[in-house]
Amino acid sequence: MTGPTHGKFSADDLAAIEEIKQLKAAYAYCVDNKDWKRWASLFTTDARVDESESGVARDPFTGERVPVPGFSLEYLDQLFAFDWPLVGREAIQSFGETIAVNNRTVHHLFVPEIERTSSTSAKAIWPMEDYAWWPEGSPVRFMHGMGYYHETYERLDDQRWYIKTIDFARSWIEWR
């Protein structure tokens, strides 16, 4: 792709953008339906995922961590105390199986900015909103968050797009 992302797109650009949208839709579906094996297959074998900043929101203007009434920042950090970044499909699948075993989730993805950076690479920013519910007796019962996925993609030899990297952070989050 040449020029800014809001310029004219070639047919190849549009096809790549649509394929990446379908890939991200599959990502959200797999998370919400706990299909961890398929979810991991959406990534390159050497993918890197960093969600270390996703348990506590950061003010988009100041970058400061936003306190959550009723929860200490230290407690919320514990909820996401994994060995970040996750690297490789096996680590990514294990994370999904560990973090979301007892909760129900709904992920909403909004209009992304996607740029094909070469014939086999692309990058995107996805605005998102998610909800999670845990069963009675859990230390937390509900989470509602909003933020952004910053991702890169790679088209492999099978001509399919895969997620190469994810850096994810929330700019707003509610815990109960």
Automatic annotation (TrEMBL):
Transmembrane segments: none annotated. InterPro entries: NTF2-like_dom_sf, SnoaL-like. It comes from the Bacteria. SUPFAM superfamilies: NTF2-like. Residues 13-165 form the SnoaL-like domain. Gene3D superfamilies: 3.10.450.50. This is SnoaL-like domain-containing protein. It comes from Trujillonella endophytica.
